[in-house]
Structures are given as structure tokens and as C-alpha cells.
Design a protein that fits this description.
467 residues; alpha/beta; c-terminal autoproteolytic domain of nucleoporin nup98; Rossmann fold; 17 helices; 23% strand; globular; binds S-adenosyl-L-homocysteine; methyltransferase; Hen1; S-adenosyl-L-methionine; metal ion binding; transferase
Length: 467
């Protein structure tokens, strides 16, 4: 799957600064469902084109699949159009790879961010339920000119008619961040199929990326309904929020504040990690969550802000850490309803513990590397055989990345209490084995900036119980 973005301003090479991607380099990003490559097939002062190629791994997709999604004939899991067409996978890649541009930030060319520029985007293949008409209804109100091409389903059999796949170019004078947010929202709307669970989180994404244009779009209802994949209640909430000026204004202010804070202080790795874990837990739909090795309670604090979460139990072996958590979370001063949602318990992950049974999800953030390697087997049974939560979200350092930390001496771990640190391969081998042995499927995602050679600083595995 190929998306290209072309800029024809002067000098056109500014596109590199706007996208935060150097035109001289080919860069690869690993995503949970494959790889994204960025390179520039065309670079001159008059015309500059950036290409985003998605290399989706169909086998990886099946492995990481949630239960219940296993519909269709068996081969269809492996042989389908997903690797070849623009879909919500592309939206995820846009957010990951061009996230800074999507948020409207550029250190080198801040002035250009707010300017309308002559831009063109080309999608090599996009499935479009509703054909040419639908493409026009979605893109023309946003001020784009369209060029579309639909091929025959099969050249040998013209009677079969045209295929539902289009090759599309959109052209207009727009801000780059608008172009990216239009694509981010409208690609899954055209494809009309989403690869991940649609919930509150998706609603937030739609509102965030559609904030500046969706309420004015004549097809906003269709967009919201399709984006939220026919979840009528969510779609209705989206409409209400878009329409309700008051909520929209306060929402906007909040987001602006957040964005500004973001500019001043880039998210620390620790914060990125906690947010990624929290998003994944919320995305799993869990309402009762364990935080194993909760330390001073940073993840608990994030989860307490989520209305979906009804109960959090934080466990740690260290009484001192639990005391600090108790204080930082102000558990003694909260209203009883709030305080009842959180419970802190002392215990060890190396011993079977009844109190850990019956949870929908468990987080284990930067804890496994504190366990003795020869005790890992006991821990695996405690968590995956006895506690058996529906989802386990587990993070650990990627030792390959240590070479990038300037003040870490070669061969040293990041923390004196770490008993080991794994490479990506070691972590994946461990996680795949544990998943196989205990009836879980597992998928992996990077956290933090992904380096071409050594990968991300933190690695995350998401285990989902196969019923
Ligand atoms: N998850 C927290 C803390 C990570 S530090 C965060 O992200 O901020 C690792 C934590 O694991 C420490 O608080 C330590 O006390 C705890 N820990 C280490 N061994 C443990 C064990 N066997 N059982 C439970 N917790 C343990």
C-alpha cells in the first residue's frame, strides 16, 4: 500500500521539515501489524514527494487477533486485501510516522504549518464502498479536486464489471496538518472496515482529528457513523459533541492547553509508556484492572481518570512503594466512591495469590526485568495459569536500544535492580512461548522513538486470552 504526498511550493524540499522526515534517508518504522517505510521518490526545489509504504504482515495480523474476530473462511485470514489497500492501518501509520505533522508542529518551519500550501496526495489503492460518488461527497466539500481511476475487476472478463478499488489523487490548497487529518479520518470511512476495536477511544480520536472541519462537513453524519462503524450510540454522541458549541469550546481549550504543554515539554519515555499502556487497557474494554508491581502508582493515577474503569488493584512487593502510592494518589482524602475504586495490596508475583483472580486485564509495566531469571517460570504460572486475566499488557526495556543512551556504560543495565534486559527477539520468544503454553495470543508494539537499527527504547506485549 502506497500513499504519496507532493508539495509544489518553493523550495519544495521544505516538505521534509514539515513531515519531520529527511528527504535523503529511507526510514523504517515497525508497527504491530507490519512495517512502514518512508522515502522520497522525487526531490527538487520545485517538486518534492514523500512516500509512505505499508508492508502489512498478514500472518502477524492473524496472530495478534482478538477472539471473536475469526470470521470468514480459514484462508481468508491470510489471503485478503488488507496488505494491498488503504485502510485504518494506514491511518494508524500516518499517526505514528507523521504524528508531529498531524499535530501541526514543525521546529524548523513553524510559519509554514499554518499556511495553506499546494499539496497533492495519492492513494494507490483504496476500497470504496459507494464508488466515485462517495469519494466526491467526502473530499469535495473540503476543497479538493479529485482524480479517480477504477479498474475492471478482471481484464479478461469485462462482464464482471468494475472493481470496488480506486486509485485516487486529491489536490488542493490546504494546510499539511489538515490534509493529514482528512486522510486519517476519511480513509477508514471509505474502506468501511476497521481492524481494531471501536470504543470510546475511537470517539476521542474522531473528535480530535475532526475537530476543525467535521462539524462543517455536509456528510458529517455519514462520516461519524462509518468511522465509528455503525455503533449508533457512539456516533450519536459524536454528533452531539460536534454540534454542542459549549462542549466543543471547552473541549478545544483543553486540547490546546495539552498541545502547548506538549510543545514545551516533549513527553518523557515514562509518560509515553504509561499512556500507551493505559490506552491499550482501555481499548481492551476492561473495567476491572490489576496493576502488578504498581510502584508509586503512576499508572493507577492515569487509569483513575478513565470513567470506564470501575476497579483498580495495585500490587507491589515493596511496602515503601505502596506508602508513597497511597500518599500520591491522595487515597485518604478522596470521596468514598472514588477511594473504593482503588485498592493497594502488598504481595509478590512469585507466589500464587487468590486476590489476583477474576480481573479482565492486568498491566505489568517495567517489572519483569526485576524478577530473578530462575523464578520466571513461577511468575508465569502465577499470572497466566492462576490469575488468568483476559488481557495482559506487559512492558520491558529493549536492551538493543541501550547503546543510544549516552550516559549508560556499555554492557550496563538501565537500573541497578534489573536482573536482565532483553533484546526484541528474546522478549518475543519468551512471550510467544508463554502465550502458547497458556492459551493466549500475543502481539507486540514499540514504545518511544523507533530507531532503524536498534528499535524502540521500550517494548510492549499484549496478551489476549483465547477462550
Ligand atoms: N510499574 C511501576 C513501577 C516499576 S519499578 C511504574 O511503571 O512506574 C518495578 C516495581 O516492581 C517496583 O515497585 C518493585 O517493588 C516491584 N517488584 C519487584 N519485584 C516484585 C515482585 N516479585 N512482586 C511484585 N512486585 C515486584
Amino acid at each position: 500500500m502506497l500513499l504519496t504526498i507532493t508539495y509544489q511550493g518553493w523550495p519544495a524540499t521544505d516538505l521534509g521539515y514539515l513531515l519531520h522526515k529527511n528527504p535523503q534517508r529511507v526510514q523504517t518504522f515497525s508497527l504491530s501489524y507490519g512495517e512502514a517505510h518512508v522515502f522520497y521518490p522525487e526531490v527538487s526545489e520545485e517538486r518534492c514527494t514523500a512516500a509512505l509504504v505499508l508492508d502489512i504482515d498478514p500472518v502477524g495480523l492473524v496472530r495478534g487477533r482478538k477472539k471473536g474476530a475469526n470470521e470468514g473462511f480459514t484462508m481468508e485470514q491470510y489471503v485478503n486485501d488488507r496488505p494491498y489497500v488503504a485502510s485504518s492501518f494506514l491511518s494508524v501509520a500516518i499517526a505514528r510516522v507523521f504524528g508531529t505533522a498531524l499535530a501541526g508542529r514543525s521546529k524548523e518551519r513553524p510559519g509554514l504549518v499554518e499556511q495553506k500550501l499546494p499539496l497533492e496526495a495519492h492513494l494507490s489503492v483504496i476500497p470504496c464502498r459507494g464508488g466515485e460518488q462517495m469519494l466526491r461527497r467526502l473530499f469535495e466539500p473540503l476543497g479538493y479536486e479529485l482524480e479517480m481511476e477504477a479498474g475492471l475487476l478482471d481484464d479478461q472478463f469485462p462482464d464482471w464489471g468494475i472493481s470496488p478499488y480506486y486509485s485516487v489523487t486529491i489536490r488542493g490548497d490546504v494546510r499539511l496538518k489538515d490534509l493529514l487529518s482528512h486522510l486519517y479520518v476519511l480513509i477508514p470511512v471509505l474502506d468501511n472496515e476497521k481492524h481494531y476495536w471501536v470504543g470510546e477511544d475511537e470517539l476521542k480520536k474522531l473528535l480530535r482529528h475532526g475537530e476543525e472541519w467535521l462539524s462543517e462537513h455536509p456528510e458529517r453524519e455519514l462520516i461519524a457513523t462509518r468511522y465509528l462503524k455503525y455503533r449508533r450510540k457512539l456516533a450519536r454522541t459524536a454528533m452531539e459533541r460536534l454540534m454542542d458549541q459549549e462542549t466543543a469550546v471547552t473541549g478545544e481549550e483543553e486540547q490546546k492547553e495539552e498541545q502547548e504543554a506538549g510543545i514545551e515539554k516533549p513527553l518523557s519515555l515514562n509518560e509515553q509508556r504509561l499512556q500507551a499502556v493505559s490506552r491499550t487497557l482501555i481499548g481492551s474494554g476492561a473495567t476491572r484492572i490489576l496493576d502488578l508491581g504498581c510502584g508509586e502508582g503512576k499508572l493507577i493515577r492515569l487509569l483513575m481518570k478513565e470513567r470506564q474503569v470501575k476497579e483498580i488493584v495495585g500490587m507491589d512487593v515493596s511496602a515503601r512503594a505502596l506508602m508513597i502510592a497511597q500518599e500520591r494518589l491522595h487515597l485518604d482524602c478522596l470521596s468514598s466512591a472514588q477511594a473504593e475504586r482503588v485498592q493497594l495490596i502488598q504481595g509478590s508475583l512469585l507466589y500464587r495469590d487468590e486476590r489476583l483472580s477474576g480481573f479482565e486485564a492486568a498491566a505489568m509495566v517495567e517489572v519483569i526485568e526485576h524478577l530473578e531469571p530462575n523464578r520466571l517460570k513461577s511468575f508465569e504460572r502465577v499470572l497466566f495459569e492462576f490469575a488468568k486475566p483476559g488481557t495482559v499488557v506487559l512492558t520491558t526495556p529493549n536492551v538493543e536500544y541501550n547503546a543510544k543512551f549516552e550516559n549508560l556504560r556499555a554492557g550496563k543495565f538501565r537500573h541497578s535492580d534489573h536482573r536482565f534486559e532483553w533484546t526484541r527477539l528474546q522478549f518475543q520468544e519468551w512471550a510467544n512461548r508463554v502465550a502458547d503454553e497458556h492459551g493466549y495470543s500475543v502481539s507486540f508494539a514499540p514504545i518511544g522513538p523507533v530507531d532503524e537499527q536498534v528499535g524502540p527504547p521500550t517494548q510492549m506485549a499484549v496478551f489476549t486470552q483465547i477462550s
